[in-house]
Amino acid sequence: MPGTMEPINIGLMGLGTVGGGVAAALSNNAEEIQRKTGRTVCLRRALVRDAGKTREPAPPAGVLTTNPEDILADPEIHVVVEVMGGDSPAGEYLERALAGGKHVVTANKEVMARRGASLLALAQSQSVNLLFEASAGGGIPIVGCLMSQLLANDIRSIRSIINGTTNYILTRMARSQTPFAEALSEAQSQGYAEADPTNDVEGIDAAYKLSVLGSLAFHQSIPHEAIHTEGISRLGPEDFRYAAELGYAIKSLAIAAAQPDGTVQARVHPALVPEDHLLAKVDGVYNAVEVTGDLCGQIILHGQGAGRDATTSAVMGDILNVVRFIDSAGPPPLLPVPNGRGHQVGNSIRPIDELSSAYYLRLTCADQAGVLAQIARLLGDGNISIATVIQKDTDPGSGTAQLVITTYPSREADVQTALAAVAKLGVVVSVDNLIRIEQ
Amino acid sequence: MPGTMEPINIGLMGLGTVGGGVAAALSNNAEEIQRKTGRTVCLRRALVRDAGKTREPAPPAGVLTTNPEDILADPEIHVVVEVMGGDSPAGEYLERALAGGKHVVTANKEVMARRGASLLALAQSQSVNLLFEASAGGGIPIVGCLMSQLLANDIRSIRSIINGTTNYILTRMARSQTPFAEALSEAQSQGYAEADPTNDVEGIDAAYKLSVLGSLAFHQSIPHEAIHTEGISRLGPEDFRYAAELGYAIKSLAIAAAQPDGTVQARVHPALVPEDHLLAKVDGVYNAVEVTGDLCGQIILHGQGAGRDATTSAVMGDILNVVRFIDSAGPPPLLPVPNGRGHQVGNSIRPIDELSSAYYLRLTCADQAGVLAQIARLLGDGNISIATVIQKDTDPGSGTAQLVITTYPSREADVQTALAAVAKLGVVVSVDNLIRIEQ
Ligand SMILES: NC(=O)c1ccc[n+]([C@@H]2O[C@H](COP(=O)([O-])OP(=O)(O)OC[C@H]3O[C@@H](n4cnc5c(N)ncnc54)[C@H](OP(=O)(O)O)[C@@H]3O)[C@@H](O)[C@H]2O)c1
Ligand SMILES: NC(=O)c1ccc[n+]([C@@H]2O[C@H](COP(=O)([O-])OP(=O)(O)OC[C@H]3O[C@@H](n4cnc5c(N)ncnc54)[C@H](OP(=O)(O)O)[C@@H]3O)[C@@H](O)[C@H]2O)c1
Questions:
Q1: Transmembrane segments in this chain: where (chains A, B) (predicted)?
Q2: Quick check: pTM over 0.90?
């Protein structure tokens, strides 16, 4: 460890959107950082792929490198800040950094979802800190809240809107009845969606983040592969219209909920949310996380889940906290609580089939008498009670009508089985959508 | 410090609403606490005023005491948890505890507002922790966010709804056009307001909390006496009606905002809030804090600002954090950042006269031609531009009408001066209300 008067040296891995923000904050706010931590903090090296790229502002001479050894093998670097992204090689670099006794700050949701447990164990054994506030909520301070302020709670559930791209698209679709493809390309041209939007619109990014948050909240591993994940591409403008009629907004939610039997239900999918719930009012690129605990009740954190500045806020907060703690001996204090429940990885995730939820179902049917009776019988046979029925958008040309049915809470497997039978009815043209309803 | 295998002993000061919750959590969650902190945590003593009171559940034999020395002079007590309330003797007890090398957790906003700076300095010099999460937002994790996750930000402003009683009353007034006195007695019978509601409805409780939050956010002392404080008793049902017509809700806000000249504007008063702002949707006993920082942008934390369980969540969180850190040597890591700006206490608070704000003004005037012209002239002379005018509720009996005027942003002193002149006009019966408008 550096002497108390010596500067703390940072090795930055990645100098893109977030890395650029961190480098700027380290240099522009040097005096504030000194005041807040009692230490001088210096950017010593910044790792990039392409040293020839024009960067604005240009990093000071000698800082840029394309060789990870310049950071990993430098004993004068005390803190590695990883903002490269991706599982590999970032994950291996972080292992090496921790093994070498360096503190680590990362914004990387994929690496924390895939290797979080082993990286944290390594940090603990090395008595160094591994902080990752930016990895699961961007600028929303949820990771620290779960690790620290809300630690005394038995967390019951997390329900969150944690993908800005998806929420931007859904907000557009809801406001202007824009079809999905159009809203997506609009988001791309505005810089809110990447050229390959798969990770965002298919819910993969949200599943990584939910894995990080769920692991912290429930003190057990929530592997992202075990999270039931659905994207938003099946939603049509009519779903937003019908949902609004029923008093709901449509949001893509990432949900993890403790079950009475000790398992955790974890899922990412579009959901109907009552329009007077605060989650229904999270618009555009804003994100929000609702946490329900036995003591704290329902807490909602609302803010920017991505973007250069907001993410820099979280990464810099972690850096400042590492620096403030760098002289304290003893076990690394900021590590999250290890899994105390003895669950095996993955064993404790409840399959989506076992979900109990209310459902919104949209079907295209023949526009003739007796159709609803046939469908209702099949649902009833499957133990599914109908709450409301809306018949809409009759199309005299094709002789079809849209039928929207909402159910009382039912078992997912029963609903899926009944729907498969409904789809085979002669009078049913297509089962167009199934959306879970959250209360 | 206790050996790593020995239990950490708690001395609880106060066993009322919050103290009862803390005692219950310590006993019911003993195993979880052990898992989360790696230590056994025991309630050793609980100080009360009246040892004869029936308590549910009854504390274990030997725990209850009416003698503070049983806690302060006991070297086996490592952490003092103060949930008595009031400035004295609580403040003196905390000084003694810290001076004696004990860690302290408190939920006491008054003591932190009045003596926070000196208590924190004492804790620092004694290398012990002083945590106070529950003191300024109940169950909302705002204190820790300002100290830790948002630490890298230059905080621009805090706008908050941090008194549950007031917000409950205002929500009732808005929903059912209930007059203030009626809504207050309803809140009292529901247990949401105390028999003497002064501290809550006059904004004093909110000013204590704002003092705590502002001092953390702006790294300087924000004495509660320097905070401009107005209660809610002047609001009438008609104000809610007119506000709604103009597209606003009325909320009691506690606001602290950094000014370009380095001073801080700090005030507690009713305000018009645009109805589509999330702060307008904070209803009943829920509270919310909006923080705006240079990096994080706008963050809103929404949750329960009071109540036994929510407050226990915050106090227990602090206790668990103290215990997790109890073995680490070095400077106490969780202390907030000391004032680095060298401001003198109180010197840096900008007087309310210098506020620039839009205003809502309600007047009762003679119902005759030319009245508005006279008023508008006086406002114009005072550099105040009118944004909207509503003339309402003509009373043919008395020959009067209600006039509601909103202004563009103007200087508070100019508005007060002009209003004094307006009040003297022969055609003006009374100036009934002035409410600031927040955007
Ligand atoms: N952007 C956000 O809003 C946001 C929000 C929350 C979390 N995050 C996370 O933050 C991390 C960074 O995101 P970003 O948006 O800043 O990414 P980015 O703009 O693509 O920047 C990535 C940076 O890492 C460098 N890099 C990538 N792979 C490398 C390799 N193998 N070796 C050396 N350098 C490499 C790149 O070098 P070149 O400059 O030479 O290409 C670039 O400087 C990701 O984990 C992301 O999930 C981002
Ligand atoms: N209640 C909330 O929702 C809430 C929320 C946030 C923060 N807080 C803060 O938490 C603190 C406690 O609030 P509370 O609602 O729990 O108060 P409370 O119900 O009135 O309980 C106060 C307790 O302290 C004891 N006590 C008071 N003065 C004493 C003295 N001089 N010597 C010995 N014991 C004394 C009382 O003893 P007896 O039992 O013998 O009367 C009682 O047990 C206050 O600072 C409050 O501002 C409360």
A1: none
A2: yes
Place of tokens 């909402």: A406
Contact at CB, B152 and A29, closer than 8 angstroms: yes
- Residues 6+ positions from B19 with CB-CB distance below 8 Å: B12, B13, B46, B81, B83, B84
Same fold, A8-138+308-328 and A142-304: no
* Assigned CATH topology for domain B8-138+308-328: Rossmann fold (3.40.50)
Q: Which of B102, B109, B209, B251 is catalytic?
A: B209
pLDDT one-digit tens code per residue, B102-111: 999 999 999 9
Residue B188 is encoded by which pair of tokens? 């009292």
To test the pocket of ligand 2, the residue of B311, B313, B315, B319 to mutate (highest count of ligand atoms within 8 Å of its CB) is B311
Q: Which residues of B touch A325 (CB under 8 A)?
A: 330, 333
Is the CB–ligand 2 distance for residue B307 below 6 Å? yes
Q: Quote the ligand 1 centre to A30 CA distance (angstroms).
A: 23
Give the ipTM: 0.95
Atom of ligand 1 nearest to the CA of A20: 16
> CA-CA distance, A283 to B57, in Å (whole number)?
46
Work out the minimum CA distance from A65 to partner chain B, whole angstroms. Answer: 26
User: CA–CA separation, A170 vs A160, rounded Å?
Assistant: 15
Instruction: Report CA(B18)–ligand 2 centroid distance (Å).
Output: 7
Query: Using only C-alpha atoms, what is the Rg of chain A?
Result: 24
Residue B335 is predicted with a pLDDT of: 54
In chain B, whose CA is at the least distance from the CA of A288? B300
CATH architecture for the domain at A142-304: 2-Layer Sandwich (3.30)
pLDDT at B1: 60
Provide the pLDDT confidence category of residue A414 given band limits of 50, 70 and 90: very high
Answer whether A53 contacts ligand 1 (Cβ < 6 A). Answer: yes
So where are chain A's domains?
8-138+308-328, 142-304, 353-437
For residue B138, give the ligand 2 atom closest to its CA: 6
CATH match for B353-437 among 3.30.70.260, 2.102.10.10, 3.10.360.10, 3.30.70.120: 3.30.70.260
What CA–CA distance (Å, rounded) separates A305 from A134? 9
List the one residue out of A47, A7, A6 whose CA is nearest residue A23. Answer: A47
Tokens, residue B355 = 């506020």
Would you say how long chain B is, in residues? 439
CA–CA separation, A423 and A223 (whole Å): 33
Banded model confidence at residue A51, pLDDT cuts 50, 70, 90 = very high
Q: Which of A217, A120, A235, A111 is nearest to A160 (CA)?
A: A217
Assign A218 to helix, strand or coil: helix
Whose CA is closest to atom 44 on ligand 2? B85
The model's pLDDT over A30-46, given as tens digits with 9 standing for 90+, comes to: 999 999 988 999 999 99
pLDDT tens digits for A282-294? Answer: 998 899 999 999 9
> Residues B120, B335: contact at Cβ < 8 Å?
yes
Site to substitute for ligand 2 among B66, B81, B84, most atoms within 8 A of C-beta: B84
